[in-house]
Design a protein that fits this description.
The chain is built from two helices and six strands. By secondary structure, the protein is α+β, with helices and mostly antiparallel strands. It has one domain. Strands 1, 2, 3, 4, 5 and 6 form a six-stranded antiparallel beta sheet that branches. Strand 4 and strand 5 form a beta hairpin. It is elongated and about 45 Å long.
C-alpha cells in the first residue's frame, strides 16, 4: 500500500501527538501490531478481561484495545472515522467486576487524523466479555488533517 506525502505527514503528526498523550498519561501506546492475533477476531474462546487480581494498568490497556477494536467489539467511531490508536490512564480506571461497566480516561487517535481525550466506558457481561462501549464528548487535542 502506497501513501501520499500528505498521508505520511498526517500519520507522523498523529503518531507524535498520540505518543505525547500516551506519555502524559503514563502508559505505552496500544496499536494493532502489539495485539495478539486472537484479539483481532470478533469472537474469542476466552474472556478478554483480565483476572480479578489484575491491576489498573492491565485494565487500562484492555480498555485501549477494546476502543480500537481489538477486544471483541468494533472500534469506536466518530462519524465516518474509526479509532485506531488509544492509550488509557491507569490512574483513572473505575472499579471493575463482571457484569458491570468500567471506565478510564483515554487519548484516542481516529483515522481522520484527529486526536481526542475522552472517557471510555466498557460494559462487561457476567463472564467478563465486553458487550458495549462508548465515550463522553471529550476534548479535541488535534484536529483532523486538512482542517
Amino acid at each position: 500500500m502506497m501513501f501520499s506525502q500528505k498521508e505520511i505527514q498526517t500519520r507522523k503528526v498523529l503518531a507524535i501527538a498520540a505518543l505525547g498523550v500516551a506519555g502524559s498519561l503514563g502508559v505505552a501506546a496500544c496499536s494493532n501490531a502489539a495485539v495478539p492475533t486472537l484479539l483481532h477476531s470478533q469472537t474469542s474462546a476466552a474472556p478478554v478481561r483480565p483476572a480479578a487480581a489484575a491491576d489498573s494498568s492491565d485494565v487500562a490497556q484492555e480498555i485501549a484495545k477494546i476502543a480500537i477494536g481489538n477486544g471483541g467489539l468494533t472500534a469506536l467511531d466518530q462519524g465516518d472515522s474509526q479509532a485506531y490508536l488509544a492509550t488509557c490512564d491507569p490512574g483513572t480506571v473505575s472499579s471493575r467486576s463482571a457484569g458491570t461497566s468500567t471506565s478510564a480516561l483515554c487519548g484516542i487517535g481516529y483515522a481522520d487524523g484527529s486526536v481526542w481525550q475522552r472517557t471510555v466506558t466498557v460494559t462487561f457481561d457476567s463472564q467478563g466479555r465486553p458487550v458495549a462501549d462508548g465515550t463522553n464528548l471529550g476534548t479535541e487535542l488535534l484536529m483532523p488533517a486538512g482542517e
